[in-house]
Amino acid sequence: MGLLSDPNRRKAITTARILILNMILVLHGDSVVCYLAGIAWFMGLAFEPFTLRTYMSENAMGSTMVEERFPSGERALATAREFAAHKKKVGGMPVDWLVKTMRAQGLEVFTQSFSRNLPFPDESKERFVVRGTNVYGILRAPRAPRTEALVLSAPCSPGNSNNQAVGLLLGLAQYFRSQIYWAKDIIFLVNEHDLIGVQAWLEGYHHTNITGMGYTPLQGRAGSIQAALSLELNSDVVTSLDLVLEGLNGQLPNLDLANLFHAFCQKLGILCTIQGKLQRSDWDTVEGYTHSAQTMLLMVLKQASGRPWGEHGLFLRYHIEAASIRGVNSFRQYKTDATSIGRLFEGMVRKLNNLLERLHQSYFFYLMPSLTRFVSIGYYMPAFGLLTTILLLRALDLWVHLGTPTPVTEDGVGEGESPSSPGLLSVLTPVVISHLTGVALYTLPVLSQEMAVEHFPVSETEAVVLTAIAIYTAGLALPHNTHRLISGEGTEQGWRVLKLVALLYLAVLLGCTALINFSLGFILAVTLVPAAACVTPHVPKALSAVAMVLLSPGCTILYCVFLFQELQEVPVSLAEGWMLFLSVISQGILDHALYGSLVYPLLALLVYPCWLLFWNILFWK
Amino acid sequence: MAAPLTLVLILSVTIRAVLFRSSLAELISERVEVVSPLNAWKRVVEGLALLDLGVSPYSGDVFHETPLVIYLFHFVVDYAEIVFMVSTFEFSGKYNLFIKQKYALEADRYPHDCLELMRSPKEMHYIPLKVAMFYLLNPFTILSCVAKSTCGLNNAVMALFILSTLKGSALLSAIFLALATYQSIYPLTLFAPGLLFLLQRLYIPVNPCRSRFWFFTVQYSVMFIGSLLVIVCLSFFLLGSWDFIPSVYGFILSVPDLTPNIGLFWYFFAEMFEHFRFFFICVFQINVFFYTIPLSVKLKEHPVFLIFMQIAIISIFKSYPTVGDIALYMAFLPVWSHLYRFLRNIFLVSCVLLACTALFPVLWHLWIYAGSANSNFYYAITLLFNVGQILLVSDYFYAYLRREHHLSQGLYLRRKDGSEATLVLK
User: Which residues cross the membrane (chain B) (predicted)?
Assistant: First the structure.
């Protein structure tokens, strides 16, 4: 309390405040400085000297040596071919064959069937009503009670892909069966219909039903799952293995899991990548920096999308550390065979088997510019903090304007008349209307698809996406016409109060988002903060309106699509980009319905209404 | 006056009814910010079930409400939602009389230039409405009501105490104070402001040498202690055992349940070595009661403001606070709207409180569900939230004292040499 009631210190604070305010008022420059500093800080994170080297924090995994002896890579590939033949014959997942094979290996085998009706057809994967079966076998731990488990999973994908993954999984199962050092049950899961199958299995395992999935209960169960690895392998030999970490809602597994993968790749001499990018050693050249910046930006974009980027993504929600490992076969000379990949998995599973408690020692909030370097939360949050500071400074500026027409003297007395409070309605109405628009944007697209299909020559998916875009655009026309009808002419005070409310709202909203999913919060801040900081009713209307639309959340998604393609080195033309943008929207809505991803509701119910408030201020009359 | 009040009532009933029927109600009633082990509806239901089975509701360690509450719900359990709503609405419309009298008293005592510090009768006309609005439409109250937290009942009893005190009825005031104390111990500290207000109303000076002062003090204390005894004995006869004393008051005072909440106790006592526990329990609990003495001395002329300060202090420092308690003292804020110009940190404080309110569920999610954060994150926000509240209350306290000073000294202070003077609070 001394700080705030001692007049001398108080005077110092007030002076500092006036100084800051003067900077805002006179120069209007510090916002720009803050903004540029925030962006620069963020881009600087990819520069190697500013990052930390990854290190294994978990003692149980660090010092204990394990020996990898998995011998039967060729046999696993033979199993894979057999599996492929059976898959072709059945025309889907060869459940009976899988059950028979796993049982022959001495596992406890169970199946689970599930069904799920999608809210609208998924055009990219061509599915609408999904029915499938998961097969899983449990290897019981000989050395401990059945209280903990590990999961190894491989998807049974349509067509010819991922056969080798299933083959290797079965090969590993057979080899693990003959080992004696397992202290945790190991579950080998082969799931159909990729993520939907995993979702059904996880919900069945944990007795929850959060997404309205229909599934049969699991007959066999192991202990609480400590970690999970998911395998995707399309060829007999690979050139490199790619590690996928980004999960549902931007959740990441503990960094030790990535360290574990990297450690074994080093040990076995396997090329390993993250975001499909190899590590470069020339960090001090421009190319080196660009490379790691690209890697980091890819991670940020993937994390911001809130989708699970591999099968592991859904495990994370159940507090299970998980990662996907994807085999990549390119034109490089150096190849790795299935035996080495099998050994990699053996090593990782054995180390995970040694864990005494869940992985918790290392970081959960990080960004990776390369597989050996990471940026922790303490380093990347200032970049976001600098951006939100702008919002808070603006809010403070407005607050002082509202309170005192005359400049502030020493606290209290110098203030002239008490601020006349503008009508509550003039602020409340825009807030309520823009949120109602948000609710419409959230609910109507899926609800009104039938009607849209009836009246327009479009497919269901197109109908959903186009309705969403239509509501989004209609929202722009709506709010700035309404407050005049209700509360008459808006006053100068009125828009200031509204802007103050909107600024604080945006700051809190972005802050909360960034805590859960830093990338999403940062990307939204990059585009929304300039619009929020600059908008007043007194700027040139047409020009600012265009700028506002270009900085709106919808356009942010569009930029992200183009940037993502650019970073993946598959640039697209405008038309293709637009099609991709449409499919991203439909995927976002589907992800929300199928797996409970929160990005779509966040954007529709909170971010978009918040942006509409600023739009409203621009057209304040 | 009546029309807007009805409008507010209808609006708040609608919001609550909609929320009661929606799927959110279950989610809200599980939130640790909204319900505490003392007032969770789930626990009341458990207690009721035990009572129906003929078992003492206090066997086991689930139920910690007072016997009167459980018997109240025993009869009205089917209408529980209505009870909660009614208890919320009792709060509204109660400050009319007092402020008007106060104004008449003050009008001609002070120098001329202070007139702008006075509230105009028109402003005062709207204060009861604003109070009702602040309470009924406060998201904290709505959450607490939808969660069916029994905190709403406690707030209603406190409101009745304040109302009867302001109306000058010593007996009713003592009875409701006893009821509030019986419910949660802490309102005991409201004894001092209640007594001071009644003394002021009867024009009895606070002077230990005068027999009238002692006479009335003893009279009020006897009424209070008598009704407290009656209530406690009534509980004993209803239950047939003294089980409830350790289970309710022991539970409040010794804080055995360290479920995270928005208070300061849980983290501190979860981290502490067992042999320091008793000492620090005493320190923390005395802390709640201690402020009564200095505040009563300083504010003996202004018992209504003292009531506000006490309620705020209780809701910050009590052992199991919930957002419902905060809503109670926040409802008083419009009464002090004339202090607005002397508040210094109101922007900072409201930003802090707003941000913390949003961060509570986010950090809870990160800690409990995602597993990526830990209890330190949540406690950091709890600390910040409480610091914000303390700043708010002390800011109001400062503003109040400063207004009093200006009322007696004139608004524009001059030094002896004629230059402008500034006030220093030391």
Answer: 127-147, 159-179, 185-204, 213-242, 248-269, 276-293, 305-333, 345-370, 376-398
